[in-house]
Amino acid sequence: MRYVYGITSALLVGGTALALVTQSPVGAQVAQNERSEIAKAVPRAGAPESFADLVEQLQPAVVNISTKQEVTLGVRLNPFAGTREPITQEQQGGGSGFLISTDGYIVTNNHVISGGPRGEEVNQVTVTLTNQKEYKARIVGRDVASDLALLKIDATGLPFVKFADGSSARVGDWVIAIGNPLGLGSTVTAGIISAVQRNLGQGGAYDRYIQTDTAINRGNSGGPLFDLNGNVVGINNMLISPVGANIGVNFAIPAEAAIPVINALRSGEKIERGYLGIGIAPVDEDLASALGLPKDRGEFVQRVEEDGAAAKAGLKRGDVVTKVNGKDVTPQQTLSYIVANTKPGTRIPIEVVREGKTMTLTAVVGTRPPESELAGANFDPEDDQALPDDPKGTADQTVQDTLGLAVQTLTSDIARAVGVDAGTKGLVIVAAAGSSDAGRKGLRRGDVIVSANRTPVTSSEALAKVLSDAKKAGRDAVLLEVLRRGGPSAFIAIRLKGN
């Protein structure tokens, strides 16, 4: 279960409530809780007598998921062999899931079957049914943006459940959660829907949740949230708590948001989301005052990517986007949410306020890049970082061990962030060990390596090969061509570690 830690305060006022009774004038409106429809909406008992019959039907389709992952914590020197060996540790995790077909397809959260520092696939997934039968599961597909994953076990004749049709969840509806909290095994809890379409301010295509007071804890992640018809209305995902345990503020991914993703994963299709290519900021009170605009209406354009959909449509820095495809841009209906849920290739009108004047532009929605690529757009050269304990691959390990540097491929967004031409090709330094020759000679985060021994390098693999060739040739150093903001490139000879 994912946690959103927050400190919640409540003001409890004691005392006696004074009831004022007044004569209603002729023709006055009837209070909502006095309307005749109330008698029809609420049965005499006020609640179901029992959920037992429903749970008996649903529980066999809910599964326990356990995972194992070998995680590299660092490296150590073997004094006898003179080699570096990885320090690994087996980590275990898991959560819940539910069968959606009789032949073994299972839905869960992506974070349930992710491990390591960057959310890699775990090495092993085991699924346990309520009859205690265990199966090894394979990961059919996973989607980081929606936090959904699809598993498959080799079995037939299995009990399964279906998603609810459309957006059927209503505030006040009874719901039942079945899962495996705190390692206790199959557990049933009940509550009501507290809110629908809840925006948690995280941005993106899936920042809309069903909020429920149903008791949810660690281990419930990926489990189903059922309505009283036995349909899956949501997938339990996270909770807000100052103590890391349930306090009645829990969130589930709505079924209508999950269905297209699960269908795409099942058919092997690529999941595509809309993208404009702009950096945005909310129009808060101060910004609204400075621009002479209403507060919390629209979003301010901070950055426009070259050759992106927004740039081609004519959007500029300083524009305020107030409406997209006929929908008002508000804190509850953000620009990111509207665009991400628009099919790439769609032509949409965009209403903007520029220098006090309202105008409408037309954009052709682009395709949202992978999350890893988008992270590059937020590269901060001033953010001091240590070398990673767990390099991403063999080439990264070679570069780190030999030069004392962590590097990644330079993108146009990162190039702009570090102050070099957006068309520059090379590797950006993510971190530099102060004890290395590179660190002592002033190389730092944000510097760009253009070439090594006069060979252009645009990947860690390319740089690792140059380093390997240098060692084979008996060289003790490598010549790096380094580019830094505000100046021409310079050649710096860096001594190889271990030589």
From TrEMBL:
Q: Does the keyword Nuclease apply?
A: no
What UniProt keywords are attached to this protein's entry?
Hydrolase, Oxidoreductase, Periplasm, Protease, Serine protease, Signal, Stress response
Q: Which GO terms describe its molecular function?
A: 2-alkenal reductase [NAD(P)H] activity; serine-type endopeptidase activity
Name where it mostly resides: periplasm
Q: Which residues form the signal peptide?
A: 1-19
Record keyword RNA-binding present = no
Q: Which residues form a coiled coil?
A: none
**In terms of domain of life, where is this protein from?**
Bacteria
Which parts of this chain are annotated as the region Disordered? 368-395
**What does the similarity note say?**
Belongs to the peptidase S1C family.
Protein name per the record: Probable periplasmic serine endoprotease DegP-like
Species source reads Sphingopyxis granuli
Q: Which gene encodes it?
A: degP
